[in-house]
Amino acid sequence: MRPPYPPPPERSAELRRRFAEEARSERPDLSTLCLLVGAEADGALDEAGMDAAQVELDRLAGLLPYRPGGPQAWAVALRELLGDRLGFHGAPADYQRLESSLLHEVLVRRRGLPILLSVVWMEVARRAGAPVYGVALPGHFVVGFGPDEGQVLADPFDGGRVLTGADAELLVAGATGTHLDPSMLRPADPLDVVLRILNNVRAWAAARPERSDVALWAVELSLLLPSHPARLRYERAQLLVGRGDFLGGAVELEAYAEVVRAVDEGAAERVRGEAHAARAMLN
């Protein structure tokens, strides 16, 4: 399969407008945001393709049994449908593919990163009426069902395997070397999920300097979210300079220096020096 490439500028501008609007709505829709990310990544994903992905999520939800029971029953029903019957799961090789971070591709391939497979689980379960949410464990995203006192966790990357407390402890210990803290089990906000997906895209692109175009749009979408790390502006500036947009990079560096100045004048001065150097490259 060809690597996905971004759409033309006019299409990209419209997608970004819709992404920012959805992200700032009262109840941001996770599947819509993920599909807008997918359309920004893959110029071949048009409106019909985005609609088809939503229809597929609806179809999968319709295959679940009607109200199977409590959190454990929901987790088992999702595993039996999506994992056992339909083969949604992940593998180490999926970390090497940009498609593994794109919802429309994950729905077709039935393979992806833990967080995208979790999005499939959440969106299918939500449509069917399940008490479902994402759980952003350090280094590994899973889904949760039910309230705190009766929470059931499942790992979509492992085909929806229902996790015991010891399983969750092992996942956290393997990622961080520390113990599982109850705060790690809180439901993840949809916008935090989207930011984490974009972080994965940036990590993929960082390992492939020839795809700085991917890194740039991932940073720029992240900056459209209502809450984001300020340092993303510095990353965007570096990408612009690296891609030959010295003036755009210098302007962004100067703006970031103003943000930093309030807390660290020395760091701000260093960033202003980088801006000066970028402008000098125009000569």
From TrEMBL:
Which family does the record assign? Belongs to the UPF0162 family.
Write down the InterPro entries for this protein, in alphabetical order.
Answer: SirB1_N
Provide the transmembrane region boundaries: none
Q: Indicate the segments forming the Protein SirB1 N-terminal domain, all copies.
A: 71-199
The protein's name: Transglutaminase-like domain-containing protein
**PANTHER family named among the record's database cross-references:** F-BOX ONLY PROTEIN 21 (PTHR31350:SF21), SI:DKEY-261L7.2 (PTHR31350)
Origin organism is: Streptomyces coeruleorubidus
Q: Name one Pfam family in it.
A: TPR_9
